[in-house]
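Fold Annotation — chain and its backbone
Encoding — discrete vocabulary of local shapes
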Amino acid sequence: MSPRTDLCDTCQHFRNGLQYNTYKEEEAKDLLTKYKEHLAKVKLERNYYNQNTKLAVEQRKLVDENYLVMGGKADYCSISTTAHYSYNWAQNVHVSHSDQQISKIYYLSPCKVHLFGIQNETIHEQINYVLDENEIIGKGPNGTPSIVFDRIKRLNKGEKHLKITCDNTGGQNKNNATIWFYLLYI
């Protein structure tokens, strides 16, 4: 079985439109043009991501050298290098789940668990948060930045600059308030 990747809603929309509207030639051409434009933007974004990762990997050698010279501890944001992190909210998972639940248990609502991961793209170290539905402070402007900032503090080995990658869903909080949060506290 091959590993799954995130499915882009826009790509899926274009694929479905092209698959089911092939009998309308003019609409199919327009849809295909828009799909190609979207794929070009996706390629630009992927290239930007890869450039950030490459920069962070190259500069990681300097971080490691300083980290060893300082006895395994560097001051927070003390080395003029760049780190690259990515984060994402995964789908919510219901536990415990069985497709063979018995009688009354079938109608009870299972516990919902929220999954959040943040990864240091340089060294491929990922930390996953598993949050019970009664523990989560939300995926909004308080929850996501709080988790991200906590992890940044723990992953930082002295890097002064930071590149962050996340997808465009609302839960990632790629908005002005979140950007200011990162600028003020990092």
Residues 25-69 form the longest helix (45 residues). The mean pLDDT is 75. Helices lie at 9-20, 25-69, 143-155, 176-185.
